[in-house]
Amino acid sequence: MSVQNVLAGPILRKTTLNAVYVWIALDKKMVVSGGLYNSQGLELEKATPASCKPVKLGENLFVYLLEIKPATPLTEDSFYTYDIEVAGRNLSQLGLTTGHKGITYGNQSRPGFYLPKFHSHILQASCRRPHAALENGKLPVFDQSEKLDKLLATSINNKNRPSMLFLSGDQIYADDVALALQLKCSELGEHITGVSESMPYKNNTQIKPYKAKKYSQRNKKWLTEKGGFTTTAGENHLMTFGEFAAMYLMVWGWSADALQFKTYKDIKSRVTLKSARHGRNRKAATYSIKRADYNREVKVLNGFFEKVHHLRRVMANVPTYMMFDDHDVTDDWNLSEKNSTALKSKALSRRLATNALAACWGFQFWGNDPERFGTKKLKQTIQNYYGQDTNSHQRAATAEKTLLDQQFWQYTVPVQPPVMVLDTRTRREFQSKSKLALMDDQAFKLLDRDLHQLMATCPDSKNLILLSATPVYGFSTIEKLQLKFTTEKMKIALDREPWIASKQALARLVDTLTQHASLEHIVVLSGDVHYGFTRFEQIFSRGRNVNFYQCTSSASCNTPSGSVGRFGMKVLENWSRFIKIDTPYLMAKEREKDFIISDTNVGLLNINEQGPIATTLHCHNVENGENYRRTFALGDGKRRLLTGD
User: Fold this and answer.
1) Which of 194, 192, 242, 190 is nearest to 211 (CA)?
2) Which pLDDT tens digit goes with each residue over 345-361?
């Protein structure tokens, strides 16, 4: 297999006045260096030697996080560029900067970024599923990451340029994977790791999912019966570390020219036959996957991957921060106590979740906060297992204990406005059959500690940006429906995990956030729900009013639940008006009746030192092809609210 040296990246990660981090993945261990330049092209600093050493995640996968620490702090409200050399070739010589798929804008020779004193333009996106168009019946796929690229291109040389991007969950879909894509993940995964990975199965036997004689032999039955998973779309669930890593590499910009999906002729001999009745008494065997359906699936995937270069260019030119959610590992991850217990106790599910979190570490976490997530212990644990012998039971047990049982993935970004990113997945508390707290006591204590340290870096800030995958203040009609049912089956069907499921946990979150006297405005950025809306809540706490702005942008490439889900969203919108819910949703400036958006969308927050000004959802209607935007004013005296009588 011919694979280019640069598998993904460069991606600009944590960026402050004192340090700039750039992530890149290569297929070989090579001599790598990097440099930072001012707007006049003068080199200011080179990458630290220690950061030019990779973490080996497979025989053909080496991940670098270059750290560039200037001798004196960078200048606020300034533009900078950077370059990376791989084996003596810079980004231009590697062929990454030119052409319509290049990672630079306009006539710039290197990727770069704007570093403001105050980050007044902030991008958000979530939920990218490559084969989403299969549910819509529309081609090609409309991934709104392309809109992020256009927004950046039109502001690249001015101070309105977006200066941070937050990917608020579901960077990949590990549980809901098209067959053609799963086969490619398995093929590439085995190549980049250099081994045929095994998974623990019944009676401690080992299985090799990729080697199954029939594709159905690695389907969701394995996961639901032997692994405790509850996903309803797990026929092609990713399992091995190589598969997870391959998915990240592909959705983040692996050359579309290298993605040759298998033809139906290639897979036909391994497609399971199933019986189907024809007429009154006669049964005939038919293929579980039909040629036309498979070929359409490949067409949809080709349409998606032909445009992944848009997100690659964005992430190369905007400091990018990420948080995981359920689909990065598996749908319904820790959704209920029964589900959580099963996933933590069964060998197959523990290994799959460990593989997923190890991939999250290499592709997401490390660059979010290099000091917190780049510890010697984490690096050694992951590299000792995935970089050496993925069939070692002892090393697997160490990786599982470290990644599943010990690590908490919350972090902060010490900029203006300060940013707090929650981990609402791994330390949940199941208080009763009907109450789910998205964070337990220990998680809240860690939140309190991190928030105090964060606010100490900007003690007079009136604003806080909070990232929570699940909206803190959700869409009330849907939340009421979710909370109405408490059976295990309905919890799973309705994705029952809003913050309001535990009023005590929500109250504790608000109390923890509002204890800092300077804070007047808390902007919550969320994804997860596959629709967009903006909600305003004014909370009286500790003798003063604090404004909460719930800005939800989802999905950048997905739908609520196909055409049925889209119809349901329209019904719920009208139902909300009819029953006069007293929740203050914000109304769009362009079209007042739009307070909930079910089309694909990405968000842009505009904020200044005094408080948030507006948030805009840039949307695409897959039914009629319309591109449009909805702007929600946030400032006092300008908000237009939908409220009950």
Assistant:
1) 190
2) 888 889 999 999 999 99
